[in-house]
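hey can u check if this looks right to u? its 753 residues, i copy pasted from the old doc so theres a chance i mangled smth
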Amino acid sequence: MMNLKRLFPFNRATITMLVSMLVIVLFFASPPFLELMELKTIDLRFLSRDAIPATGTVVMAIIDEKSLNAEGRWPWPRSKIAQLVDELTKNGAKVIAFDIGFLDPDENTNLKLIQEIRRTVDRLNIHSQPLSESIEEYQHKTDNDRLLKEAIERSGAKIVLGHFFHMNTRDLNYEVTPAELDRQLDRISSSRYPLIKGADENGRSLPVINVFAPQGNLEIFSQGGISSGFFNKMPDEDGVVRWTPLMLRCRGGIYAPLTVQAVWEFLGQPDLSVIGGAYGVEGVQIGETFIPTDEYGRLLVNHLGPSTVIPQYSVTDIIGNRVKPDSFKDKIVVVGGAAMGIADYIITPFSSSLPGMTLHATVIDNILTQNFLTKPNWTRIFDLLAIIVVCLITGIVLPHLKAFKGLLFALFLFIGYIFLIYQLFIRAKILVNMVYPLLGLALTYIALTVFNYVTEERSKRHVRKAFSQYVASDVIEEILENPDELKLGGDVKTLSVLFSDLTGFTTYSEKYSPQELVNILSDYFNKMTEEVFSSRGTLLMYIGDGLMAVFGAPVESADHAEHACDAALAMRKRLHLLPMEWAVKERPRLNARIGINSGPMLVGNLGSVHRFTYGVLGDQVNLASRLEGLNKLYGTDILIGENTARYVGKAFVLREVDSVRVVGKTQAINIFEIVSRYMNLVSQEKQDFIKFYEEGLARYRKREWQNAQTLFNRAEERIPGDQSCQVMAERCRTFLGNPPPEDWDGAYTALVK
């Protein structure tokens, strides 16, 4: 059976690949929550951008609260709308676009009364020419629909009326007959696109949004070639208007909106066509002006800012002739409601409540200035590549950084991508996806961080378990904090090294079984290692029945020499207490020799690429080993070199023992015995012993053999049986009969290691 773990190894590369694949799947699935987040990022892009000033070519005539207070409640008689058309025409408006539908006859009670009078006169068979003319005159004056029709016909401005589409049958509570549908389609025929390019006949293959049925203006307003366009608004799922359709399909025809019709009239009715492509709609062509859309024929609205960006005038001020005469000259005037109760309010990135007519004015301004935001088809490829690249960069770089630096890098990449998207939005006016690449970055960061935490914790547990028997806890933490240091190689540092060895342990093999010897040795090592750790030492190795430790590495310490001496004293004290602990077990009394030396040495991971261990190398290390062996000659427990003695200064009570030239070295060194940590712990006999011994050593180096011998003997009287006194006294006796050569330097040359 195929090994799936080998085929798909669970590592950082696999995690990065899986995360990027997951985000790509989500990208194509488009879950509502993530799509909503993307929409909100679009709004943030708008809000972070400064408002764009309008050209002034488009203005709004708003029916606001001021107008309602002055002219009466809505709906107004259409004679008042006719008056508005007259005033706008007089002020030089070039196009008047109504975000108002004249869908039903004007409710006029006076007209109904006159019509009733006329029917009564006809019923009574009253024949009076003056009466008939008067009735005809009054009927004309009170027919508001006709008055508006005549105002439109005599206006020098191009009039574009608004209508809307029922999106589906649910929008209606009645059934539309085929005859009524044909009649409504006929009323909006002027808004049908005359030409479809780059597609089949009538653009059937284009994925234009389909609608159910139109609701056109009254037939009286649809005659005479008056333009019209739909004013349907299609907000996104969160209610914000970001896209607006520039075409809708109804019964095989493709129809233009109020905005396109207004621009078409403003530009002098040039050629107007829908441009199709391989993947759907590409845009709308109005003469030389091209309007890019998405494949469904929707325009991405480049909202300019708050409603105040586009100039607006109260209708009552226009009717009352209270505006500057040139306010509307050669401009497109969008007429619509802005007062509560009569306006259809929309939500934009800049406002949670704007009159719907603002959308039409904004789109017209976008078209005239060619100030478009676009989301080309290639941006989908860009989005996919962004997901992959961001995940890969995170997956490649993050494993090589520490936790904090990794967080900073992720934040830098996160902010950098946002900055890139923002620059594309501001400078290139291109909209690309922000959420999915950032989601890929975040998920990759989280997944790798969790993976690193789990694997590092497992590794740390392994390191702690492996090293806890050999290294102090603070050293383990140092290793865990700097795992990169666990590599082959080392550095030269000044450290202190300690060697310890049991004396005569091999002789116990005849009395104790191998298992018991192992138990004794194991218990001994446990006790000695504890003391090494307590003095901040690092256990390097066990060598037979001896051990080796270093002080000042890997955790640096300026007091490494003092720590080594403290460890030696503690080990000696612990060794002296062992017989009491082992009395019940009938274990032997153990004795150990310790040698300590300080100086520069190579420290680090030594060995080969296949296996290495933490250790130290150098002459100073070898010297420490020789000092441990010299204890046998002088009968001492702890000997230190002159470097160590110099480092510890007066922190310890020391006794200078001799000057020795060890095996393999030509230069002699002074060696010292550690007596105690504090002088007040040294007995008077021991103090006298040290005094006489060091005086004898001084006489010895001056070749005063008899005086030196006497002083060594007096020292031994204080500590009977001291081996170092006996050794030095014997040398004095030898030199009395056979003096050394004249160039003798007072050093003893050791013959064995």
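The first strand starts at residue 58 and ends at 63.
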